[in-house]
Write a structure and sequence with these properties.
Blueprint lengths: L4 H11 L3 E5 L7 H13 L3 E6 L2 H15 L3 E4 L4 E2 L5 E5 H10 L7 E6 L11 H9 L6 E6 L5 H12 L3 E5 L7 E7 L2 E3 L16 H10 L5 E4 L3 H10 L8 H17 L6 H10 L3 E4 L5 H12 L5 E4 L13 E4 L3 E4 L2 E4 L2 H8 L11 E7 L6 H9 L13 H11 L11 H5 L2 H20 L3 E2 L2 E2 L1 H6 L6 H9 L2 H4 L2 H12 L14 H23 L14 H8 L4 H5 L6 H20 L5 H14 L6 H7 L1
Parallel strand pairs: 1-7, 1-8, 2-5, 2-6, 3-5, 6-7, 9-17, 11-13, 11-14, 12-13, 14-17
Antiparallel strand pairs: 3-4, 9-10, 15-16, 18-19
C-alpha cells in the first residue's frame, strides 16, 4: 500500500516502538495508521483496544473493521457486548477508563490503545474521561492518538511524555488530500470570495432553492447540509420536496434499497420510516439524534450508496462517521454549547466542513455558508472559517467513583496524582490550587458521608465506586436499602431517572402511579441531602438531579407495551427514548457489577434488563443484523 507522507511517518515511528499522536484534517486518512497497528497486532498475536467518543462511531468502526478483520474484532460499549475477548476490542472511552480503574489486569494482553478523536479531551462534559484514561494508562501499553487539527499538539504530547516516561512522537499534516473551496450565500446571492460579501447592498433573504439550484448546476452533489436543530433539519428536507434529484431508474433503485433495509431492520411499519418515503424517492433525507438508531443507520447506508443526493443533518453526522460528500452546506454559524448558544468554534466548523471532498473522486470539496449579516459580523465569519483552530484545554473534573477507586489504591497519596494531569500541566498556580481544593473537598464529603471510614472504603463506598456519574444518589438508595426493596419496575424507573436530562420546557407526565410518586419523593430527598453537602463543601457542579419524565414510558415498556404506544406517554423524540432506555440498561449493569450487591438484587436487575433490552432498544441486535 502506498501511504501519504504523514501516514508513512507515523507508521515508521510505530514500527520503531514509539507512541504517536497524529494531528490532521478531517478526511485526511488517519484511519489507515490505526489499521496498520491492527494488522501488525493480529499477525503477532497481540491485542489492540480502539476507543471512540460516541457509541454510533464505535458501532460503525465495529462494522468497518469486522469487514476487514472478521472474528478478530469485538465490541464493548455498555449496552453492547459482542466477541468481548477478541484480540481487537472496540469500546467507548468510558469503558476503557473504567477497566483501567476497576480491573486493570483485564488489559494485560493489549499492547496498543488507539484513541480516535483524542481532541475530545477538550469536551466540557466528558473530556475528563480521556484525561483520566491517559493519566492511568497501563505502563505496558503504547498509544496512538488521532486528532483533528489542534495547534497545541506538541504541548499535549509533552504532557503525556512527562507522566509516562516514554517517547511520544508527533505527526502533523496541515494539507487535506482534497482541498476545500469556500463559498457563501448572502442576500440570496452565491459569492465565491469572502471579500465580495461587503459589496452586496440588497436585502433579499437567503432562499434554500437558490442554493440548491446553484449546487445542481455546478456539479455540487451529493451534499450534506448541517443544521443545529432537529426540527429544522426535517422542515428544510420537506421544503425541498418539489425538487427531484433522481431519474426514474435511480428512484426505483433507491426505493428498492430503502425497502430492503426497512425489512432488514424491522422498520417496515414504523411511522417515522414511512414519513421519509416520498423524500427518499427524490434523493432527499434527514438524520438527527431524535430518530430511531436503526432508521439513522438505514439513512447512512442510503447515503453511502450515493443515490441520496441531499441530506439535512445535525453535527453528530460529522463526528468520525465516514460519510464524505462533494459539498457541505452550513445553515448558520451559531450553535448550542451545553448552556448557551454561541458562535461556532473553528475546530467544530472544520470537523463538519471536512466531510466535503471525496478522496479519489473529487479534485476539491465545496463548503457553502449561509450568512445573515444582521446576525453575525463578517469579521466573525472570517474568524470561524479562516482563523486558527482552538487549543485543546483540560476539562478535568474527577468523579466520586474515580476518587473512591483511587483512594482504595493510594489512600491519602491520591493527591499526588493531580500533578500528573493535563490540567496541572496547563494551569497557573491559582488554578492548580483551586483544582486541588476541589479534590480535597470531594474526599472530605466522601468521608463525612461514610463512603470511607478508618482509611478504608465502606460497603457504600464499594458500591459507589462501580457506578460512574450517578454514584452518590444510587449509593444512598443502596445504603438505605431502597434499591434492594424495589421491584423490576422501580429499578427501571430509577435507572431512567438518573440518566435522563430534560430539554428546555419538557414536561413531566400528568399522571404517575403512587409508588412512582413515593420513589420520586425519596430520590429528591436523597438528592437534596447530597446537594446540601456539596454546597457546604463548595463542590461545583452539583451532582445531577434524577428526573422522572420517562417514568410512565419506562413502566409501560416494562409491562410489554409496544414501542408506538409507549411513545405516547412522553414528549421525547423516539430516538431519545431508545437512547435513554439503552443508558438505563448500562446503569443497571453497573449496579449489578457491584461486588456487594446481593444476589436477589442482581437477579431482579437481570430481569429488568431483559425486558428493557428488547426489540428496537436492543443495540446488540441492531449490530448483529447490520
Amino acid at each position: 500500500m502506498i501511504y501519504d507522507r504523514f501516514q508513512q511517518e507515523a507508521i515508521d515511528h510505530i514500527n520503531c516502538g514509539h507512541s504517536v499522536i497524529v494531528s490532521a484534517p478531517t478526511g485526511a486518512g488517519k484511519t489507515a495508521i490505526a489499521e496498520h497497528i491492527i494488522n501488525d497486532a493480529i499477525a503477532n498475536n497481540l491485542g489492540v483496544i480502539y476507543t471512540a467518543p460516541i457509541k454510533a462511531l464505535s458501532n460503525q468502526k465495529f462494522r468497518d473493521f469486522q469487514g476487514k478483520f472478521q472474528d478478530n474484532i469485538g465490541i464493548l460499549t455498555g449496552d453492547v457486548s459482542i466477541n468481548p475477548h477478541a484480540p481487537v476490542l472496540i469500546m467507548t472511552t468510558e469503558i476503557f477508563r473504567n477497566k483501567i480503574l476497576d480491573e486493570p489486569q483485564s488489559l494485560d494482553k493489549y499492547s496498543w490503545v488507539i484513541f480516535d478523536e483524542i481532541h475530545y479531551i477538550d469536551n466540557p462534559e466528558r473530556g475528563t474521561v480521556w484525561e483520566e484514561s491517559l493519566i492511568f494508562l497501563p505502563k505496558h501499553m503504547h498509544l496512538l492518538g488521532l486528532s483533528a487539527t489542534i495547534p497545541n499538539i506538541e504541548q499535549f504530547a509533552k504532557w503525556i511524555e512527562s507522566i509516562h516516561d516514554k517517547s511520544v512522537k508527533v505527526v502533523i499534516e496541515e494539507k487535506r488530500p482534497v482541498p476545500l473551496h469556500f463559498l457563501f450565500q448572502c442576500q440570496n446571492e452565491i459569492i465565491d470570495k469572502i471579500e465580495h460579501l461587503k459589496r452586496i447592498r440588497s436585502s433579499k433573504p437567503n432562499r434554500l432553492n437558490t442554493l440548491i439550484d446553484y449546487l445542481r448546476n455546478n456539479d455540487g452533489l451529493p451534499a450534506i447540509y448541517f443544521v443545529f436543530s432537529r426540527k429544522r433539519a426535517e422542515e428544510l428536507a420537506q421544503e425541498l420536496y418539489g425538487f427531484k434529484f433522481l431519474d426514474a431508474k435511480e428512484s426505483r433503485a433507491i426505493t428498492q434499497l430503502y425497502e430492503d433495509l426497512l425489512v432488514r431492520f424491522d422498520l417496515k411499519n414504523e411511522e417515522s420510516a414511512q414519513a421519509l418515503y416520498p423524500l427518499v424517492q427524490r434523493g432527499i433525507a434527514y438524520h438527527h439524534a431524535g430518530m430511531l438508531p436503526t432508521l439513522k443507520e438505514v439513512i447512512e447506508r442510503l447515503f453511502t450508496s450515493r443515490l441520496l443526493k441531499v441530506i439535512f443533518t445535525t453535527e453528530t453526522f460529522a463526528l468520525g462517521i465516514n460519510m464524505p460528500s462533494r459539498s457541505v452546506m452550513f445553515d448558520g454559524l451559531r450553535k448550542f454549547y451545553g448552556t448557551y448558544v454561541r458562535n461556532l468554534k473553528t475546530r467544530d466548523f472544520y470537523q463538519m466542513a471536512g466531510r466535503a471532498g471525496r478522496r479519489g473522486i473529487d479534485k476539491e470539496g465545496f463548503v457553502y455558508t449561509r450568512v445573515n449579516t444582521q446576525r453575525m459580523t463578517l469579521e466573525e465569519v472570517r474568524r470561524i472559517i479562516f482563523g486558527k483552530p482552538e487549543e485543546v484545554k483540560s476539562q478535568l473534573n474527577t468523579s466520586y467513583a474515580t476518587m473512591l477507586n483511587l483512594y482504595e489504591k493510594y489512600r491519602e497519596d491520591l493527591f499526588k496524582i493531580y500533578p500528573l494531569s493535563l490540567h496541572y500541566f496547563q494551569s497557573r498556580k491559582n488554578e492548580q490550587k483551586q483544582a486541588l481544593n476541589l479534590l480535597e473537598a470531594k474526599l472530605r464529603l466522601l468521608k463525612e458521608a461514610n463512603y470511607i471510614h478508618d482509611g478504608k472504603l465502606t460497603e457504600k463506598g464499594k458500591f459507589a465506586k462501580t457506578v460512574y456519574g450517578h454514584e452518590l444518589v444510587l449509593a444512598e438508595l443502596y445504603d438505605q436499602n431502597i434499591l434492594e426493596q424495589l421491584d423490576e419496575f422501580g429499578l427501571g424507573i430509577v435507572a431512567a431517572a438518573v440518566v435522563f436530562d430534560p430539554r428546555k420546557n419538557q414536561r413531566m407526565p400528568l399522571h404517575i402511579s403512587k409508588s412512582t410518586q413515593h420513589l420520586k419523593r425519596t430520590c429528591e430527598e436523597v438528592y437534596d441531602m447530597i446537594k446540601a453537602k456539596e454546597r457546604r463543601y463548595k463542590i461545583y457542579p452539583f451532582s445531577k438531579l434524577p428526573y422522572f419524565h420517562l417514568c410512565s414510558c419506562m413502566e409501560a415498556w416494562l409491562r410489554g407495551t409496544n414501542f408506538e404506544k409507549t411513545l405516547q406517554m412522553t414528549d421525547c423524540d423516539e430516538g431519545e427514548v431508545v437512547r435513554y432506555f439503552r443508558m438505563s440498561v448500562q446503569v443497571l449493569r453497573e449496579i449489578a457489577q457491584a461486588p456487594i450487591a446481593s444476589y436477589l438484587l442482581k437477579d431482579k436487575i437481570k430481569e429488568t434488563i431483559r425486558v428493557i433490552n428488547r426489540d428496537i432498544v436492543d443495540a446488540e441486535k441492531q449490530l448483529r443484523e447490520g
